[in-house]
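Researcher: Can you fold this with BIS(adenosine)-5'-pentaphosphate in place?
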Amino acid sequence: MRMILVGPPGAGKGTQAARLVTKHQLTHISTGDMFREAVQNKTDLGQKAEEYMKRGDLVPDALVIEMVMERLGRDDCATGFMLDGFPRTVVQADALEAAMKQAGMSIDVVVLIEVPDDLIVDRIVDRRMDPDTGEIYHLKFHPAPAEIADRLVHRKDDTEEACRARLEKYHGETSPLIPFYDGRGILKRVDGVGSPDEVSARIAQQIGS
Ligand code: AP5
Ligand code: MG
């Protein structure tokens, strides 16, 4: 299966992606995670991306597209993948569609996780990540075990200010993907309000598994 997860910042894309890739044995491609790793390793790409990310802006399309195309060409994507956070603009969606067409493939399903803006800030500001396992926690909604509390990290773009900027980008630049994929008949809408288990069940129902 070739699948895309779309949704505003903090919608639960990463949380649901972790479950879906295990269940369906897909390669998880999170452009946000790839950029954070590049920033941490101080690569050329990381240095270019860092300022955009900190402000909550999108990284320029050309940089993102080059990175994703290289990643999709690797062997572990041959049998299926889950794109989390890509595409995020119509330019990126066009580039992906052209690359898929050239490879004789197509995207099977695009899952849109919908969460209203007024719930997003809370989810983002209290998110914590475990750098050792990649597990996503939340101070209230999904607290980490006490023994790992000291190693948890708070993302640099998880401030209220950057979150508002990311929401604005989502509504301006990413939401046009909704009619884009709806027009191709592959968009599935999922209500992202409720527990992660409830959201997982809705996704399973929508993708028929
Ligand atoms: P990225 O890392 O993709 O960030 P994002 O899209 O803003 O999404 P998040 O990772 O913040 O949220 P999520 O939906 O994964 O939610 P999560 O599961 O963590 O991108 C970061 C930056 O990189 C961008 O701003 C941009 O600069 C750059 N970038 C990346 N891709 C790009 C692209 N294609 N083009 C250009 N630039 C790009 O959940 C959030 C919190 O809520 C967690 O604490 C979680 O525990 C909790 N939670 C999850 N589900 C629930 C639930 N059902 N109920 C209650 N709490 C929940
Ligand atoms: Mg994420």
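Model: Folded with BIS(adenosine)-5'-pentaphosphate in place. Residues 7, 9-15, 31-32, 35, 52-53, 56-59, 64, 85-86, 88, 92, 123, 127, 136-138, 141-142, 157, 166, 194-196, 199 surround BIS(adenosine)-5'-pentaphosphate (ligand 1) (CB under 6 Å).
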